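Forum: Protein Structure Q&A
Topic: Joint prediction for protein chains with partners

I've read a bunch of threads here and the consensus seems to be that you should model interacting components together rather than docking separate models afterwards. I'd like to see that in practice. Below is the full input, 1044 residues plus whatever partners are listed. Could one of the regulars post the assembled result?
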Amino acid sequence: MILDCGITFPQEDMPGVDIVIPDMSYLIKNKHKIRGIVITHGHEDHIGAVGYLLKEVNVPVYGAKLALGLLESKLNEMGLLSIAKLNVVDSNSKVSIGCFKAEFIPVNHSIPDTYAVVLTTPVGIILHTADFKIDFNPVNERVADLNRFSEVGNRNVLLMLADSTNATKEGHSMSEKAVGESLDNLIGRSSSRIIIASFASNINRIQQVLNLAEKYRKKVCIFGYSMRNNIKKSIELGYIKVKKGILIEEFEIKNYKSKDLLLIVTGSQGETNSALSKIAFKRHQKISIDKNDLVIRSASVIPGNEKFLYRVINELFRRGANVIYQSLSDVHASGHAYKQELRLLITLVRPKYYMPVHGEFMHMESNAMIAMDMGINEKNIFLLENGDVMKVSSSKITVDEKITVGASFIDGSGVGDLGDDVLKERMILAQDGILNISAVIDKTTRYLKAEPIITAKGFMYEKESDDLMRMIKIMLKEDFDKYQKSTLHISDLHNIIKKRLRSYLYQETKRNPVVLPVIIEV
Amino acid sequence: MILDCGITFPQEDMPGVDIVIPDMSYLIKNKHKIRGIVITHGHEDHIGAVGYLLKEVNVPVYGAKLALGLLESKLNEMGLLSIAKLNVVDSNSKVSIGCFKAEFIPVNHSIPDTYAVVLTTPVGIILHTADFKIDFNPVNERVADLNRFSEVGNRNVLLMLADSTNATKEGHSMSEKAVGESLDNLIGRSSSRIIIASFASNINRIQQVLNLAEKYRKKVCIFGYSMRNNIKKSIELGYIKVKKGILIEEFEIKNYKSKDLLLIVTGSQGETNSALSKIAFKRHQKISIDKNDLVIRSASVIPGNEKFLYRVINELFRRGANVIYQSLSDVHASGHAYKQELRLLITLVRPKYYMPVHGEFMHMESNAMIAMDMGINEKNIFLLENGDVMKVSSSKITVDEKITVGASFIDGSGVGDLGDDVLKERMILAQDGILNISAVIDKTTRYLKAEPIITAKGFMYEKESDDLMRMIKIMLKEDFDKYQKSTLHISDLHNIIKKRLRSYLYQETKRNPVVLPVIIEV
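Posted by a regular:
Agreed with the consensus. Here's the joint model:
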């Protein structure tokens, strides 16, 4: 059984890569053993790669209504919807997946319809918390079902896998309702146009904004592809309820006064092509910032996005907007459990073995410390790396095998996976550029038939190029002369040119461009 | 007069750039008007580009002992030390720079010997706070001289320029002494080897660590070029005091037990080539992480460095170290004033005009709000952008001119400045790679003399290359045939090949590689 199958976004050492999916080769090799895929919730890092897996391993998929609804749109875009076997589950479901039985416990998170998974296996019960928090004042949904956790705890849980994202944070995560109160204060007191940026998947946050729009008699217009898409889907599936007449279309905006308008937009991370970024930098066709606009950024920042985000916030201030972002006000609550919530769940479940998951190693380490403090034996806590194989029996757990896993890089049309080699070439090109030397040689006399043509891209600067070019030409002449007078093979000539030019260029410029000689024999 | 002249570090859209310095062209054009350079303190973003300026505009430089000491090392590396006119100043100095008189008020910051600058000009007094904080419990230095600020305030300050870095933060910045207490707790209770990473310029932090090493009878070894350099210079100039026998060299480490060792290292930002990073990833020649090492990261993270830093912290945990970083403990204090300190200084100085400086726009905006709340008229507060020219007279300030300023990119040996064009080329190469087509044509018959050679770098992937190559060859054949049968110029052929291939490749792969045809006529 596969639990979740998501994507991640590229790092700075993966230029030109659009998305990163898991390397599926181990799964494909073992497809005859796979009985199903269970989805805990509808975030990209949990559903984004399901389509890529189904192409190769078309087993049934189990998940809650919203998660499968969002997955459907993706499978549709990939032309896979007709072949996919999607099965909606809820808190009452008990499904058999091979020799496992799966049940689902509602938890809170930053997207509705998130479920922890209880797997009854031949060797014992395994509980996966999913990405979770415990919100005693949630919006539009019930509190995480603590009674179910307690009841499962009474059945002897062998192994518990728990979300580590916020395991370094003391206390209890903030409630979604408290965010609503902050937003109510801001929206209620504002007499300007309001622009709110949030994650497109944070359905309950969007519901709160829509409720406040109704309360303060504002018209709401939605900007950004994923935001429009998710809100549409959520209204369709009943996860968002909005009175008629609140939502308006772009072309209707001109009929209303600024103070009666509230825009919900994508771009909470400062993404270049998001609605908020386009609006800030005057690249949006319809909307630009007016002095006194109130811009509220209701989201956390994903590490690595800080610089992009600050650029957008600075630009909004520059154009005269009043920007509320998280370090100034409580306009966002995390969807992941803090220390107290992890302690509460461990108390209810009392597992024999414990495995921190979901988070960087430092977060998993902190999660492990919590479990130790709660009395779980250090030997029974497992900190695994990607690819580690955990073998679970009723009496012991062993981790002594490793399979090859990794990432596949998808770019452009996704025609092919990008290999590491291509990425390495791109990195070198990006650092120091390329120098191409094209030349023609006479097959019989071995003489150069014309002056070689030298082209630099991303490498030379005007100031220095004259001197360098003169010297490169002198060196090439020497190399071609040497070739002519010798019995060297043409590939030797390639190597000589590369080696001498690289060392000369490094010495002169401290740069290492790709040197690409192309020699044609005629 | 120039106030400070620093560098910044490259962003992710400047591949291959090592450092970024200000564009000096306006200064060079107006060098006859420049009488001197005043340095407020010895941080890279304040002294790093002085050498580049002195090469073109060799005027006297004024600064405190430590700042000029650090500057000396840099000028020495650039071969400029003999021509530079360096003048050490202190809190008693009054120096004439053209028609200005400069005085210096000690403030606190994250490097010793930082001074605010009071300029008496023909039109009134201008006060620049420098990067500052007010530390009532500083280490190894006096509290920022509030009496001097008060006294200058009594002389009617026309314009005050104030540090905005932490202007969004409520309250008063943490004292350096409190950091010492946290470190004392950690070092005193530890029975393991200790590794402390900090900014190499945070001299007083290093002094505290050395004091604690003495207190707990540990031997200290220093790793990392800038750390060794700065500590050596600071001992030389009297800013760091350390008892004989505390500092040991690398080769002596083996003579001591782990628990008696404390290493001070560079790498608090996760920089790839820093000592800490090398130690974490087993790339260091002498030191690797032992299980139970206590690693303390005593520094803030500069936005944009988070990912690199987390990679290092994760790796340290993975190897069994106990890592203390800032979100877990008070092991760092910022060097920049919070809101209360700005309010205090405004109260003492009572300037007529106010100008937030140093920080992103959102921080300067917040600083402006503080000044407004303190009663400074909104019209008298100036939020300027780089290049804005502020004209100050005794009765009014105008900002209605803009000069061209910007950044110069220095890479490799710094032979030449990198232009924007080169950077753009590199970005394109990084995104999608390059496709080179080299071909030979007979001058008289216009026929191809041999099959064109096609080379891809950072672009094609094995899976797709066969099909693409076949099609590229067919298209090239068509293009060359067309050329042969026509009277087209060779440059037309270039354009045809580029245009057709680019559009075909985009259609097939959704990628836009650089297409570089090189056609040699023989």
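The longest strand of chain B covers residues 100-107.
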